[in-house]
Design goal:
The protein is α/β, with parallel strands linked by helices. The protein contains three helices and seven strands.
């Protein structure tokens, strides 16, 4: 797989690193760790607005089916809303750090690969609590 360049904020990098450290080692945490290793890490204020980050809302297409999805990418929690996807899911791991127009081929559960293309990103709204 030839993976595109990804950009992650220092905030997301630290949060994801903490999640990986707190979780049992698994294929999912290994893939997420590999994504962090290859990421271009920037200050949150320098993250382009069209880059997928935690708490951003992202639209993407599965190329094989041309089906489009829109989810808010979040840290794991017990009860996901239907409009949310966890960073720990295969798709969540695949899309973190991608920007509008980028595609990535990613392994899904069951060994099947899918190609995902980012079509839109609505940046996370920063508040004093999340800044």
């Amino acid at each position: 797989m030839n993976n595109p360049e990804i950009v992650i904020s220092t905030h997301d990098f630290d949060l994801i690193s903490d999640l990986i450290d707190a979780m049992k080692s698994s294929p999912e945490t290994l893939k997420l760790s590999e994504e962090l290793d290859r990421a271009n890490v920037v200050e949150r204020k320098d993250l382009p607005g069209d880059v997928v980050s935690i708490n951003s809302t992202v639209s993407f297409i599965i190329e094989a089916t041309k089906k489009e999805f829109t989810y808010k990418l979040i840290a794991p929690k017990a009860n996901l809303e239907p409009t949310e996807i966890s960073i720990m899911s295969p798709i969540g791991t695949a899309i973190i750090g991608l920007s509008v127009g980028q595609t990535i081929e990613w392994p899904m559960s069951g060994g099947k690969n899918v190609t995902v293309r980012i079509t839109d990103v609505m940046p996370a709204q920063l508040t004093s609590k999340t800044a």
